Structure formats: C-alpha cells, structure tokens
Amino acid sequence: MKVFKFGGASVKDSAGVRNLAEIIKTQGQDVLLVVSAMGKTTNALEDLVLAYAHGQAETMRAVLGTITDFHYQISADLLGDSSSVHETFAHLELLLSQVPGASFDEVYDQIVSLGEVLSTQIIAAYLQKNNIPTQWLDARQLVCTDITFREGRVNWAETSLRINQKVTGRGVKITQGFVGQASGNRTTTLGRDGSDYSAAIFAYCLNAESVTIWKDVPGVLNADPRWFDETILLEKLTYQDAIELAYYGATVIHPKTIKPLQNKGIPLYVRSFLQPNAPGTVIGNFEQHLSTPSFIFKINQVLISLRPNDFSFIAEDNLSRIFGRFAQAGVKINLMQNTAISFSVVVDNNPDRVPALLAQLKQDFRVSYNDGLELITIRYYDQGTIDRVLVNKKLLLEQKSRYTVQLVVKDLG
Ligand code: ADP
Ligand code: ASP
Ligand code: MG
To answer: CA 4 to CA 129: how far, in whole Å?
Structure first.
C-alpha cells in the first residue's frame, strides 16, 4: 500500500478535489489518502474557537457562516448538495451552543479537528460518486496520543495495533491528517501543519511501500520560492538532509515526518499536484549528500540576550532555569549562543507568547532584545554564498557547524 498526503492547498476548492480524483485514477489504486482541511479552514476554525472561548457571539456567528458557506459551496459544486457535511456542521453547532466544558486547548482540538473531518467527508463522497470505491476512516479511532492537547504525542504501540486492525484490504481509503485521540475518547491534534506527520505515522504502522506528499511546488527546492527567485529542484535527498532542512524551518515538510520513515527505510516523494507526472523529489537512503547550498529564511525574529542579575556565570543551574521558562511559555528556540556571562537566543516573535516570557525572564536576568530580524540558515555553505546573502544586511550573530551556518541579520534595505 502507498500513502498519499494532500495538504490544504491541494484541496482549496472544487477544482482541487477534481484534480485529486484524477491523480487517484491514474496513480493510486491501493492507497491510503491522508488529507488536510480545505484551504485556510484551520485558520478560520482557530478564529472560531477564540470567539467561542471569549463569548463573542457575533464574531462566532460570522466566522461559522463563512466556514459553512465555503464547505456547502464546494460540496454543492461537486456533489449537487451539501448532505455530505450536514451532520458535522450540526455537531459543531451543538458544541458551540454549550458553555465551554473543558480547557481552552481541549476545546481547540475538538473544534479545529473538524476541518479535516469535513474535507475527508466531501472528498470521500466525491470519489464514490466517480466510481472510485472509497472507505472513510476516522483518524480519531486510529491515531492514539497522550493528553497533550494541540501537540499530542503518539503512542506508537497502540496506534500500530489499531491501524493494522482497521486498515485492511486493497482499494482506496481516506482519513484525516493532523488528528488523533487520547484515552477517554478525547480528541487531540498533532500541532499545526501536522498532516505530513500523520502520513508518516500511517506509513510506518502499515509498512507502506512509499509516502507521497502532493504540494504546490515541483518538489523540495533549495529555497522557498516565496523568498528566492532562482531555486533549484533537489531531485534526491538523504533522510538526514531532509531532517536538517525541515528542522531549520523549510516548511515544505513538517520536521516530525522524516524520522519514522527513515527508521523503516520508506521512501518519501514530494511531488506537484499541478504536474502529477513530474517525478519531484525522492527522499531516501542515498550515499551522496547535497551538492548545492540550501537556504532557509525566517522573518520576524527576535534576539533575546540574558545576563544574570547577580555575579553568577551562565552555567548549568541558570541554563536549566532558562530552558524551563522557554518550555513553559511554549516558545521554541531557533538558535542559541552563550558566553561566560550572557546567553542569547533567537525565537519567532509570537505576540501571544514572547511578551509574557520576557516578563518572566526579567525576574532573574537583565534582558535585552532586538526585534524585526531575519534568521538565514544555509546548509552546505561556503564563504561566497554567505557574502551574497549578507548584501545589504547587518550581521548580528553567526553560528557555524560543519555543514550549516546560521546568520541573524537586520535588513538595511
Ligand atoms: P500543504 O498544503 O501541504 O500544507 P505547505 O504550504 O505547508 O503545503 O507547503 C508547501 C509550501 O512550502 C510551498 O508553497 C513553499 O512556499 C514552501 N516551501 C518552504 N521551503 C521550501 C522548499 N525548500 N522547497 C519547496 N517549497 C518550500
Ligand atoms: N490543517 C492543519 C493545519 O493547517 C494540519 C495541516 O494542514 O497539516 O495546521
Ligand atoms: Mg503544511
């Protein structure tokens, strides 16, 4: 069996779903489809949860109206009516009519996970209508996680057991990316952009022949085409290089996706749903690492420097306190560097999390910060490449390892 993952961009409208069906007809008779919410539905559902949690009835109605119209329209276009999603919207409306009965993060997972439920219901019905017998599977009954809402950690033994019990026989099957369940039937999600990871979970548990993630780009490129004009398609990539690129922020693959596949030697194809016959990128066990530099570009970064208030050095006791604070605030460190008396980190400037973290840190440290920065990571760098990316930028911090350089810069343009 093969696993195909279709992201939100690939099913953002009815034309996208028709295209998906064509790809299945030509490329996938024995396939498990792992599908994301349509277009930007997850963002809209996040807005809905916020309005619900804050009791903003008017906003809630407006956002729900937009989400409902969007899905009804696609369903009507593809299937002639909206019956494929009636039940899910009735369930959502019932949920929203009650006072929130759980923590914000749990309510978030109950509601936001429905984006994937809706998309797979419409697509399953459309494939059926087009004479592609399709079995719809509920990922909440297959992917078992712990109780960490919004970032569920997979219980591999239980997940594998369930997937192997329920995903049997040949033919087309469809399930939701991003979604899982903790014990007590409590819905969880795997973290934003987690559908790639879902595809890897299913492939690992099923010993799949391969995974293909269908994207709006020709494959993995040596830079994000949104930022760089002249990108090169990387036809072959080692698991190690793919992990490193994803880890440093190449958003084309979710970083958790690669390891499970590497452990079983399952190849990962990244291909274009716009050019389904082009080979794209294959990630696997290859000898040769990349020969050209790859770039990862993150904007809106903040450089935070900490100095102890007392006479202490930056040592283990300070570091463990610092890391504890970052973990508690849910702020991921993109780069860190320390000297005897100062510790610097670069993080995404998330307005929901960073100010609270800074306030906490100020209790124990002298804190300075510099925002509006860019973090440029180059894998397989050379000096010429570094010089080129630094044109018109002020370099604030540089960190080099054997294969990777990270540059924290301020744009002077
Ligand atoms: P999905 O619809 O599957 O969630 P994403 O939007 O998450 O798709 O991923 C595809 C996007 O990743 C591309 O449109 C591209 O802008 C971005 N991207 C970032 N880094 C790279 C890279 N190195 N190669 C290709 N695409 C990249
Ligand atoms: N729909 C989820 C999100 O937008 C998961 C995914 O698409 O990968 O974050
Ligand atoms: Mg994505």
So the answer is: 20
